[in-house]
Amino acid sequence: MIVISTKRSAWRNLFLFLLCFAAVSCREPSVSEEFIPAPGPYTFTLDFSDTLGVYNVALFTRIDSHEKTMRALGELPITAVWVAPAQGDEPLRGFTESFYLPLEGARRSYFSRQVWHQYRTGVAPAVYGEWKLTLSLPDSLEVRGLRGLGIEVVKSKAD
After folding, report:
1. Backbone angles phi, psi at 17, to 5 degrees
2. Looking at per-residue confidence, does 108 or 28 come out higher?
């Protein structure tokens, strides 16, 4: 005669369920954000180390200013300097680009604008690892009420 203890198998099943749940919940997050208060420098470290991942990069800011000032500004000119991770004894590699961060369509309150802009989508870096991204505004540009710049990186699996 075979006797099966249901009490013991129920505890074992519960333990296995909790173990699987813990393993799934311990993976790294797929979204990271960082905000650097004004005045910069605005240097971010971006973790592009997952060789199976593609990344979407968004920029955000908050500007506390009157509507008249915002209309006069229109958009923020930004220079981005990307620096790739070091590869042994090779010199650092990277690139520089200039673009405009549009301020239209910002979420508004009476005195504040919150700007969120999708900067790059589907980024699959040629070199995996921790990249440095430095964002800067022209020295001649004074943006009254600029609270800083932030970045959001969303990782997904490549198709």
Report:
1. -60, -45
2. 108
Contact status, residue 131 vs residue 32, Cβ threshold 8 Å: no
Cα gap 57→99, rounded to integer Å: 14
List residues bridging with 99 in a β-sheet: 78
Neighbours of 11 (CB within 10 A): 11
pLDDT tens sequence across 139-154:
777 777 788 899 999 9
Distance (Å) of CA 27 to CA 2, 21, 95, 102 = 41, 11, 32, 35
* Per-residue pLDDT band at 62 (split at 50, 70, 90): confident
Q: Which of 67-76, 92-101, 109-118, 123-132 is the least confident region?
A: 67-76
**Would you state the structure tokens that stand for residue 96, as one six-digit string?**
């520089």
Domains of the chain by start residue, with CATH: 29-157 (2.60.120)
C-alpha atoms less than 13 angstroms from C-alpha of 100 in its C-beta half-sphere: 6
**Given the DSSP bridges, would you call strands 94-102 and 75-83 parallel, antiparallel or unpaired?**
antiparallel
Tell me, what's the pLDDT at 14?
Answer: 63
Burial class (CB in 10 A: 0-12, 13-18, 19+), 148: middle
Q: What are phi and psi of 150, to 5 degrees?
A: -135, 165
